[in-house]
Specification:
With 113 residues, the protein is mainly α. It is 41% helix and 0% strand.
Amino acid sequence: MIDNYFKAVDENQRDWSVMEEEHARKNLGDLEILTEITYNGFKHNTSSKENNIQGVHTYDILANPNYVDAFQYVPACTPNRNLYIIDDDSDEENDAAQSDIVRVALNLAYIDE
C-alpha cells in the first residue's frame, strides 16, 4: 500500500522539488510553481523509505528525464550548475539563464502580469 503522497516521495524527488521551488521563488521573479501546502509538505515530511513512488513523482514536465534532455535543462539542484551550461557568449555569470528561461517559458501561463 502506498503511503500519503509526501511520505511516498523519495528523498531525491523531494530535494529536487524543494530546490526547484526555492530557485524559482528566489531567482525567477517570485515564480511559484508549487502551492504553499505542497511546498511545505515537501519541506516538512520525510520519506517512508518503503513503497515510494516509482518514476516521475509530479506533473512538472521538467521532472521527467525525457523532457530534461529534450529541453537541455539543467535542474537547480545540480551542484555547480553553471559548469554544465555552455552558452554562446563570454560572460560566464549568465550561463544559468539558458535553463532558467526554459523554466519560465514552461510556466508563463501562471506568472502574474
